[in-house]
């Protein structure tokens, strides 16, 4: 009875005097609770000492909470806060354990029910198929057939037209690309045909020039013979002695040779004008005098030595030659075409026109090699000597027993005619035949 009266009195006091702090209670209400107000609190603390209290023992009634909140002093409020923390902790622990247990049970149920689901699906599949067939049969009516036929009548021509248009477009694009290719091929063929015609015309011109040259040479030789015969007749008529007659004829022959000595009747493949070049990597260094080498301003005020390509030019005036250091050296000529070399020609100035009245710088002993462009293998084609007492233009026939074809010809000089400082070469010529493949093609074009 005392407890009920105290509770009623506390409710009446709350209604009459509004509380500003909900955590602060009246003295009368806290005093009237007595031992009964503390009993639920201690009872809950005893039940919540375990790890995970049950839901029945972890809940408090509204009256118990109000009694706990209305106790006097800060100690009672701390105990209320502690009690609520214990309640929340127990609730969270129970909910987490319950959720983990529920998840494990759901996984086990799923694993156990999988074979059953498979078996049920196998049994239900025929039933579903039968139902689908029945549904299709129900939908297969005359009206539906008419609708489907109308749709097909419209859709099939449209689809066919789309396919036809696509194929036609692809064909047109291919035709355009093929036309472009054909036009390109036609232009290339036309250019090749024009170049072939130009080559044929050039070959015809060369052949006609060759015939004209042969005719002129024949006329010149006939004129020479006529001159020699007329000279003999004049000498015979004047009763010139035999020794003097022979000397005069020899002098006339030498004069004619000097006039026509440059006309070597063989094609020259070592001409700069037709594409012959010098392989500088395998050619000796050009000679420069010591006073020029030691002069720092030589490139500005002095003329440097002639390059090795000078030997490929027909100009053989005194001083227009290529010189290298000492009596030994070499020069490698790259021909415009791969040929079978048959002879070489070496030219030097005569003593009569030499400014020093001598030709000691002329080459003497030299070797000729053919170099393979793929393996760099050298084949000796001959060992020769240039004689300064003979004609200024001297031709040497090569020994090419295997009839090999070369693109590079090497002249290796071993000595000169007494000059220790340098050796001069005025002009070199290489004679030979073109490869059989080029010969046959040129003959066919001619």
What does this structure look like?
- One of its GO terms (molecular function) is protein-membrane adaptor activity.
- The chain has 446 residues and is an alpha+beta fold.
- The chain folds into 3 domains: 2-104, no CATH class; 141-260; 268-445, Jelly Rolls (Sandwich), CATH 2.60.120.
- The protein has helices at residues 2-16, 27-47, 62-69, 73-139, 142-237, 242-260, 290-293, 298-301, 436-445; strands at residues 277-278, 322-325, 329-347, 365-371, 378-385, 393-397, 406-413, 422-425, 427-434.
- Strands 1, 3, 4, 5, 6, 7 and 9 form a 7-stranded antiparallel sheet that branches. A two-stranded antiparallel ribbon has the order 2-8.
- Helix 1 packs across helix 2 (27-47) and helix 5 runs antiparallel to helix 6.
- It starts with a helix and ends with a helix.
Structural descriptors:
446 residues, alpha+beta, Jelly Rolls, 3 domains, 7-stranded antiparallel beta sheet, two-stranded antiparallel sheet, 55% helix, disordered N terminus, disordered C terminus
What is the CATH top level name of the largest domain?
Answer: Mainly Beta
Tell me what the CATH architecture of the largest domain is: Sandwich
Helical region count?
Answer: 9
Helix-strand topology string: HHHHHHEHHEEEEEEEEH
Q: Rounded to an integer, what's the Rg over CA atoms?
A: 61 Å
Strand composition percent: 5-15%
Per DSSP E runs of 2 or more residues, the count of β-strands stands at 9
- Characterize the main sheet: 7 strands, antiparallel
- Give me the CATH fold name of the largest domain: Jelly Rolls
Mean pLDDT: 75
> Which regions have little confidence, pLDDT < 50, spanning 5+ residues?
1-72, 292-303, 438-446
Helix content: 40-55%
For the termini, the CA-CA separation is: 147 Å
CATH superfamily membership of the largest domain? Galactose-binding domain-like
